[in-house]
Amino acid sequence: MSEGSEATDGMSKRERREQLAREREERIREKRRKRLEELAEREGTAPMGTAPVQDNQSEPAEGMAMPKGNYGEDASGLFGWVNQNPSSKNAVYMPAFKGDGGNTGEMVRQIRGRGKTGEGMEVTIKMPKTELQIYVRKVGTQKSNLAPIVLVHGLLANSWCYKELLDELEKTDREAYAFDFPGCGYSTWPQPGVGFSFTQEAITEVFEKVLSSLELEAREPIVVTQGYIHNQYINLWATKNPDRISKLVLLNQPLSPKSKLPFVLQQYRLPLVAPFVAQDAVRAERFLEGGGPYQMTIDDAARYREPFLESMMPGLGLIDAMKNIDFNANLQQVVDGAAKMKDKVAIVWGSSDKYLDISEGREFSQLSGAKFREIDNAGFMVQSDWPSRVADFLREL
Description:
The chain contains 16 helices and eight strands. It is of the alpha/beta class. About 35% of the residues are buried.
């Protein structure tokens, strides 16, 4: 009789199964240890067996009910069972992501604030019932003979979508600004209905107060808009106040009263679906990337993901914004208003847009007399796909 068989004499079937399970766990543990050593040697990093404890977590937070850890090999916290199972124990955490534990909290810590770059600053604006911090990106210096450029984003985006365009404009020291609307990027994320609602009136008021805070109101800026919803409100404001701007430049966005919302945005109006999709942290990056021919970089994706990982408020703001807009009525008003602006409107259109047909831009151009510039091999995010060509067009104005 073999040595293995002798060792099992007198065991019940249940005891034998338990022994085999222990042996299997030990083999897997050993394979995992060797794999981690190989990865560490290849990447030049220390082996990673468990998620690292952050410096600021070495002491239990005051008032925390469970001071012990909820992860690691000896997890003993209330939710320790999440890691105390074969699936989690046998997982190999790849070193490509620096938040080695792989949980959401570590992901947030790794990406938090990375989009706050040198050109960024904050301005405070006072609304009727609340005060908001608005994050603004600024490049270039003021020139008396050139109008400043103000870049306005749409829903699910933030000022980061103009980062590459700002870099291009900065090469010629052109004064330009991009800011995050409330509920977006690094601006305040207000709770809808508590001091702030995402209505046309509120979004327009934010825009006007940002211009005032930056002392741009009297300088007749070139206003550039792109996307859905928030930018549409600013288009309508511009058509009603043509004497307060130099130009209205429309990048890819709905421009026909017959336009339909992409299904991704329609879902924020569905009673049972909206609360779930609003908390999907990767939805913004997928929507923005899905409108064009190029894959978004990891760094860009993190900038759109960050607010939704940090808080539920940006998602609730999306629901409120979609609830409050009369989409097609807004577009009809913009079309009617633009027709009266004569030569103050221009259009730049990425011809590879997967959400909007180029015919919308051309038809709007004919109705309003707007200058039309087509940019091939660029999609919905034309300012990101071909920032240099968009910048060249803006310099011509």
